[in-house]
Fold this sequence. Notes:
Elements: H1 2-26, E1 32-40, E2 43-44, E3 50-55, E4 58-64, E5 69-70, E6 77-79, E7 90-95, E8 98-105, E9 111-113, E10 116-118, H2 151-156, H3 166-174, H4 195-203
Parallel strand pairs: 1-9, 1-10
Antiparallel strand pairs: 1-2, 1-5, 1-6, 3-4, 3-7, 7-8
Amino acid sequence: MKSVKMFPQFIATLGILMLPVFAFAQSPSLPHQFFGSVSYTNGAAPSGLAVEAKINGSVVGSSVTSGGNYGYTPNLLFALDSQGVNAGETVEFFVNGIKANETAIFANGNSTQKNLTILASIPTTPTPPPAPASPGGGGGGIITQTSTLSAEAQKVDANKDGKIDVLDFNTLMVNWGKTGANNVADFNGDGKVDVFDFNLLMINWTL
Length: 207
């Protein structure tokens, strides 16, 4: 009879021990940030080249070169845990579709400097033709320039200042892992703040 009476206590104790494990399993994985220089055989990479991070052939982060570097503000490159990525998986880097010599290992929450080298010459950018002259020789034309965010970008403008920048990123980090309705950092409206909201922020980054 004693063993029967102790059985409910054993179940309760087991449940308490399992709670931290369950909570850890449910928490979202933090991204792994990469940054560094990009070098070709004949010099540093020019600005405006696309840099991609891939795991198992899928793109998990992207950036644009600036001054021979990638991954710095505003062009942050993260390897994201958005496609079932597990710690320890290999990250490959591509610049304008050409694979870099270097690889890295994915680890949640890390920030790693990874200088990339491309065994190719710097790609050339064709010079655009000059714009045709306006008829009549006079000015007077009104040039309008819109600076409003797209409908999708407005969803990730957490502080509603008309730009997507580090202030919105800070709001995301403060609310990371939270669940529930009406969270300012739940950009996709699925009731939780996770890597999918992070993806939207990076896609719409403006400053």
